[in-house]
């Protein structure tokens, strides 16, 4: 079924219920939300958009984000969400690879994308969007099947280019229903607050809140601001939000400094990176039992494991510290196994690759059968993460087999940064690794073999021309030669050792 039907049903049963807010200000009721969606869907049809077509969303967090998203679905098309922090050239590459016919943008991003992409871009503050809202509404929501593509999410890979994860209606339906079973309850009195990018997991969590007729709030800042979050939580009440572990720590530190108690915060779901036990203990001690942990991947969105609020807050169980260091137990709709090098299952207590099977794992990488064959094997998603299951079914992450750097909850893949740096005329060789950071979890360090002296300012400016600001190295280390094995492969373990010793 088409996921836009969930919005239609709430609009039919409770049209006056508040739906979209920008900060404290009401932007639309559910009836108005649905009417805008159907008008924009009608306009898309008039532009030649057909079921299955891909349409980009390169936008900051705004109420119009959800209108555009549901309008794309109502027209039977596929959403291609793009992180607003990406460089316009990176966004243009994604749109081109997806074969997107057009893209909705927001102020501050529109101009940059238009300068590097030829596809039609529609600023939600501009005349195109005004015309769309005034268009004759689409009569009915386009029928879609469970296996149809609905969300084409680009996740970076070690090849240096993002891969499109093909996410179907069934996957997102199942994820939403599993949320009620394993993560949290939702009612029409609740508020979803979008302080993390709506292009990622925080955004797809809108589904269960639309289904239940809850309120949707985008901060006026467009992102994560601790004082603003506390203010909106007090104002709206019963707030749910998704947060990376670094965001949880920043909320805790700010609250302790300012005397904030977190009034109005009902649930904070955290994930997207390692959470230190000491940090979550401190957060629970200050805010109370409002935290739930999830573990997922783009290839199995938000839906591998969960650690309940009771377990996160429990300090009486004999194994509470080990459980708190875990990422919880399998969500209801998936199976989890730990595999050896051949994919054969390992017994509890053994470390191996985390494998997941169920209706929430991806159908395929977009137009990439080779990568799909390596990642989905005999129905199992090979996550590339190393972990261990204990006898109680709790999964503990041990390491990442891929060299992904997780900084502030965002994935940074070294190859992307390395390829950008290698385009600079002074750089002969480069290798990028992550180093521990007290606030962001990790930050990026580049070991560079240069012709001449290393010019950090020049390399920084070069990176800012090619990749998103958050991906650029925070430190550069000049090195005469990169350590390599007999096959010419860079030994990143040696670089990490050098960095630690330094």
Structure report:
This protein is α/β, with parallel strands linked by helices and 502 residues long. It has a domain at 405-501: GMP Synthetase, Chain A, domain 3. The strands form six sheets. The protein has a nine-stranded mixed beta sheet with strand order 2-1-10-9-11-12-13-14-15. A hairpin with a 2-residue loop joins strand 19 (376-377) and strand 20. Helix 1 (4-13) crosses helix 2 (30-46), helix 2 (30-46) crosses helix 3 and helix 11 crosses helix 12 (277-287). The longest helix is centred in the first third of the chain and has 17 residues, at 30-46. 51% of the residues are buried. The mean pLDDT is 94.
List keywords for this structure.
502 residues; 26 strands; five-stranded antiparallel beta sheet; nine-stranded mixed beta sheet; 34% helix
Largest sheet: 9 strands, mixed
Helicity, in percent? 25-40%
Biggest sheet strand order reads 2-1-10-9-11-12-13-14-15
Number of strands: 26
Our count of helices gives 18
CATH superfamily of the domain at 405-501: ANL, C-terminal domain
The fraction of residues assigned to DSSP E strands is 25-35%
Radius of gyration: 23 Å
CATH architecture title of the domain at 405-501: 2-Layer Sandwich
Identify the CATH class of the domain at 405-501.
Alpha Beta
* Low-pLDDT residue intervals, each spanning 5 or more residues: none
Secondary-structure-based class equals alpha/beta
Shape: globular
Q: Distance between termini? A: 56 Å
The averaged pLDDT comes out at 94
- CATH names the topology of the domain at 405-501 as GMP Synthetase, Chain A, domain 3
């Amino acid at each position: 079924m088409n996921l836009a039907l969930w919005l239609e049903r709430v609009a039919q049963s409770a049209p006056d219920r508040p739906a979209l807010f920008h900060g404290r200000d009401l932007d639309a009721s559910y009836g108005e939300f649905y009417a805008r969606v159907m008008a924009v869907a009608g306009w898309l049809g008039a532009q030649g958009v057909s079921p299955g077509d891909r349409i980009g969303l390169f936008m900051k967090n705004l109420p119009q984000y959800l209108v555009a998203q549901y309008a794309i679905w109502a027209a039977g098309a596929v959403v291609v969400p793009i992180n607003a922090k990406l460089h316009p050239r990176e966004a243009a590459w994604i749109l081109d690879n997806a074969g997107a016919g057009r893209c909705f943008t927001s102020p501050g991003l529109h101009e940059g994308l238009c300068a590097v992409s030829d596809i039609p871009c529609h600023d939600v503050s501009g005349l195109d969007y005004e015309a769309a809202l005034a268009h004759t509404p689409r009569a009915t929501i386009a029928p879609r099947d469970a296996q149809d593509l609905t969300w084409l999410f680009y996740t970076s890979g070690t090849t240096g280019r993002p891969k499109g994860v093909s996410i179907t209606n069934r996957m997102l339906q199942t994820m939403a229903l599993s949320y009620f079973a394993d993560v949290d309850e939702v009612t029409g009195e609740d508020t979803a607050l979008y302080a993390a990018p709506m292009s990622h997991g925080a955004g797809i969590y809108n589904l269960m809140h639309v289904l239940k007729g809850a309120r949707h709030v985008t901060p006026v800042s467009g992102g994560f601001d601790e004082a603003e979050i506390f203010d909106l939580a007090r104002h709206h009440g019963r707030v749910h939000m998704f947060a990376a572990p670094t965001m949880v720590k920043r909320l805790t530190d700010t609250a302790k400094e300012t005397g904030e108690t977190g009034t109005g915060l009902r649930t904070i779901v955290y994930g997207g990176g390692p959470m230190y036990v000491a940090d979550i203990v401190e957060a629970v001690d200050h805010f109370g039992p409002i935290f739930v942990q999830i573990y997922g991947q783009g290839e199995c969105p938000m839906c591998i494991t969960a650690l309940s609020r009771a377990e996160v807050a429990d300090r009486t169980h004999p194994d509470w510290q080990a459980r708190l260091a875990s990422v919880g137990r399998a969500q209801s709709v998936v199976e989890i196994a730990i595999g050896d090098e051949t994919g054969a299952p390992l017994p509890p207590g053994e470390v191996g690759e985390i494998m997941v099977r169920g209706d929430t794992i991806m159908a395929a990488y977009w137009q990439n059968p080779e990568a799909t064959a390596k990642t989905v094997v005999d129905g199992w998603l090979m996550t590339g993460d190393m972990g261990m299951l204990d006898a109680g079914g709790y999964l503990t992450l041990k390491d990442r087999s891929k060299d992904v750097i997780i900084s502030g909850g965002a994935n940074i893949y070294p190859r992307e940064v390395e390829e950008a740096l290698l385009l600079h005329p002074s750089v002969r060789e480069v290798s990028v690794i992550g180093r521990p950071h007290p606030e962001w979890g990790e930050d990026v360090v580049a070991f560079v073999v240069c012709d001449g002296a290393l010019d950090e300012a020049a390399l920084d400016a070069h990176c800012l021309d090619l990749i998103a600001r958050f991906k650029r190295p925070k430190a550069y280390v000049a090195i005469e030669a990169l350590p390599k094995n007999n096959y010419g492969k860079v030994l990143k373990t040696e670089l990490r050792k050098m960095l630690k010793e330094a």
